[in-house]
Specification:
This protein is of the alpha/beta class. It has two domains: 311 residues, 3-Layer(aba) Sandwich (Rossmann fold), CATH 3.40.50; 142 residues, Isoleucyl-tRNA Synthetase, Domain 1. 49% of the residues lie in helices and 14% in strands. It has 18 helices and 15 strands. Strands 3-2-1-11-12-7 form a six-stranded parallel beta sheet, sandwiched between helices. It has a four-stranded antiparallel beta sheet with strand order 5-4-6-8, with helices on one face. Strand 11, helix 10 and strand 12 form a beta-alpha-beta unit. Keywords: Aminoacyl-tRNA synthetase, ATP-binding, Ligase, Nucleotide-binding, Protein biosynthesis.
């Protein structure tokens, strides 16, 4: 059993959450659930970045006190996790968690004692959206390459961190895979930045510019720069600087996985490992970098006016599984992917309901009428062998950070199961059993029908098990319909012979037209 600590990034709370962040939540949750089912000791953390200057400016624009503004939006992010059935053990709000300042100060103190913090006057171009300084050569026609907005010119004397001291060590970590960055093209981007050379970074800003909001610099009149503050959240939930029992168990003693968007990969793959090295702590083990959710090819943004409310989608379908399925199957794990309500509905009605739901409903209805719901012995067959290979294919998809491939494999098998069920036409055998047959013909017909239904139930049971990390609610319901317990571990033997299945209601009901 390995110890695994997995986190999402913590989003700014300058507006309500949109469907783009839901992608990160469900990806990380799928991994956390998958690792638990493998038998690993998993701790999963989410949270919010409350101390961003973006939050301050958005609160001012709304005419609301910053504390009230931040708390209201942070509440919505935390609620979204519950609505999406996210299985995190911890949720850290950086402005409210009493452990967070202690954690930031412990990191600051360790970096200072290492000689990696110093004072410097600085002038530079700053993007509030990115919360970072840019060099003129990095701009797109003088504007932020990420947000397309004009930058602020900032002149301050700040605390700086000696990032340049750690360039060679970071290069070694990434090149050897000790710090794994997936996918390969994101790893190559980080390698290019490291080989170009690193410059030191500001880790404080004036309290005046921050409107006094944020973590105060120890023994100073500034506030800690948001990225030093925000990145520390990964240790806050483990008690760094306070009770470090969880820190020793998970961070120092286990695998450390961050799931982040491509726009912040540099901070997680360069700034954060360097700060940890300075503080004498292990760097992350893996950084899984996903793309953006787009609408009509345009990145969704909280301030871009094209946000899609995930909460409304979940309420509309009455389950988180419609949105979870779309984001995990129809958006490639490491790439940008477009979202539309029409494609979401097509995925629900055509794939979840039309393929999986329809198959389960037909099999279980026939099993109920022909065998009183009792599953006959599962035969040896090529179809059963194919079903038995499915979990390995899904595991390979997790290993490769290709969750969409895992779901594609599952639904390819479901498609084959539907074709086989149609070809076998077991309803004809069920009807024949109602006719006047000879004992020999009745026995042969019942055996053929029983074998068909049993292997289909076995296939559905494998599908249910494989779906547990992706669609936990639907997977649990399918297990219940099949009359078998939902396992806590993959390795629990899959036994369906003699189970008492029940058709009950349809698995994915068709929705009324809007």
């Amino acid at each position: 059993m390995n110890k695994i600590y997995i986190t999402t990034s913590i989003p700014y709370v300058n507006a309500a959450p949109h469907v783009g962040f839901a992608l990160e939540l469900v990806q990380a949750d799928a991994y956390a659930r998958h690792f638990r089912l493998l038998g690993h000791d998993v701790r999963f953390q989410c949270g919010t970045d409350d101390n961003s200057l973006k939050n301050v400016r958005s609160a001012e624009a709304a005419g609301v006190q910053v504390t009230d503004f931040v708390n209201a939006n942070a509440d919505r992010f935390e609620r979204l996790g519950g609505l999406l059935d996210i299985s995190n053990e911890e949720f850290v709000r950086t402005s409210r968690d009493p452990r967070h300042i202690a954690c930031v100060y412990a990191l600051w103190k360790a970096c200072a004692e290492k000689g990696d913090l110093y004072r410097k006057a600085y002038e530079g171009l700053y993007c509030v959206g990115c919360e970072q300084f840019y060099e003129p050569s990095e701009l797109d026609d003088g504007r932020c390459p990420e947000h397309g907005i004009a930058l602020d010119t900032i002149r301050e004397e700040n605390w700086f961190f000696r990032l340049s001291r750690y360039g060679n060590r970071l290069l070694e970590l990434v090149e050897t895979g000790e710090l794994r960055i997936v996918p390969a093209h994101r790893r190559n981007e980080i390698l290019a930045l490291l080989r170009r050379g690193l410059t030191d970074i500001s880790v404080s800003r004036s309290a005046e510019r921050a409107r006094g909001w944020g973590v105060p610099v120890p023994d100073g009149d500034e506030v800690v720069y948001v990225w030093f503050d925000a990145l520390a959240n990964y240790l806050t939930g483990l008690g760094h600087g306070s009770d470090e029992t969880l820190l020793q168990h998970y961070w120092n003693g286990g695998e450390r996985i961050h799931v982040v968007g491509k726009g912040i990969s540099k901070f997680h793959a360069i700034y954060w490992p360097a700060i940890l090295l300075s503080a004498g702590l292990p760097p992350p083990s893996s950084i899984l970098v996903h793309g953006y959710v787009t609408v009509d090819g345009r990145k969704i943004g909280k301030s871009a006016g094209n946000g899609i409310d995930p909460e409304g989608i979940i309420q509309s379908y009455g389950t988180p599984d419609a949105l979870r399925y779309y984001l995990l199957r129809h958006i490639r794990s490491a790439d940008d992917g477009d979202f539309s309500a029409e494609r979401l509905e097509a995925a629900w009605s055509g794939e979840l309901a039309g393929q999986l739901g329809n198959l389960a409903n037909r099999v279980l209805a026939l099993l109920s009428t022909s065998f009183d719901g009792i599953v006959p012995p599962v035969p040896d067959s090529a179809f059963v062998d194919e079903a038995a290979r499915l979990p390995g294919k899904v595991a390979q998809a997790f290993d490769a950070y290709e969750l969409h491939v895992g779901l594609t494999e599952i639904f390819a098998f479901i498609g084959e199961a539907n074709r086989r069920f149609t070809k076998d036409a077991p309803w004809a055998d069920a009807k024949a059993l109602l006719a006047d047959l000879t004992p020999e013909d009745r026995k042969a017909t019942a055996a053929r029908l029983g074998a068909c239904l049993a292997e289909q139930v076995y296939g559905l049971a494998v599908v249910a098990r494989c779906l547990l990390p992706f669609l936990p609610s639907a997977a649990a319901t399918l297990h219940s319909r099949l009359g078998i317990p939902s396992p806590r571990l993959y390795r629990v033997p899959l036994m369906v012979d003699g189970a008492k299945a029940a058709p009950q209601a349809v698995l994915f009901p068709q929705r009324a037209a809007a």
